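Researcher: Following up on the earlier apo prediction. This time include the ligand. It's 2-acetamido-2-deoxy-beta-D-glucopyranose, with the SMILES given after the sequence.
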Amino acid sequence: MRAVLRAPCVLLLGLLWASVPGSRARIPPHDQVARVARFVAHLCDWASMATISTHKPVEGQPFSNTFSVSDGPVGSGTGVPYMYLTHMEISVQDLQVSPQASLSMSLAQTDYCKQQGFDPQSPLCAHIILSGSVLQVNGTEAEFAKKSLFSRHPEMIDWPSDHNWFFAKFNITQVWVLDYFGGVKTVTPEEYFQASPYRKHH
Ligand SMILES: *[C@@H]1O[C@H](CO)[C@@H](O)[C@H](O)[C@H]1NC(C)=O
Ligand SMILES: *[C@@H]1O[C@H](CO)[C@@H](O)[C@H](O)[C@H]1NC(C)=O
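Model: Understood. Below is the ligand-bound prediction.
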């Protein structure tokens, strides 16, 4: 019932600025699914990442953990979630056995859903699930990952050097988007990377 009443409001909300700290960006229309996915992926500073556990007593079971991510400096997202990892970390140990993982991000992590009155599980509180694998990056891509991560997570600069941190990216094979009623929608990596999260300036 509430969902039915909310539907017309959503149309109005689409005209308003999404109130996201440090950003005057607004969420793209819900039917532009790839753009919504890029928008969510750029705004979120962290993600839940599920790996296939290698640790007793849950070996072989999904294991979801929190990671800081960045797909680029604020305002210039690439869509590729970068991470700063160490092999000392429990989930990274899982990735050494199987690099396959799932990354989840939600506008519930910003002020947007609370301000609009959208519960985190409501599809109106746009959220995405990325399927793929985690790969170490080197060279110029590692330099870009460093710039992307350290600009949005400044304390990373001081993380203990004896942990042998390295830069990694989430290599996306499928994008799943929940941004409206009617069930999950999928976006291919090609559609996702071609989409622009922001409206072009007029
Ligand atoms: C980056 O370097 C690591 C360590 O030498 C190597 O295992 C990995 O395959 C390299 N990754 C890429 C994308 O070249
Ligand atoms: C990375 O993702 C692409 C699809 O975007 C896929 O074709 C490729 O096989 C993936 N690479 C690895 C090493 O998983």
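Model: The chain has six helices and seven strands.
Researcher: Noted. I'll compare it with the apo version next.
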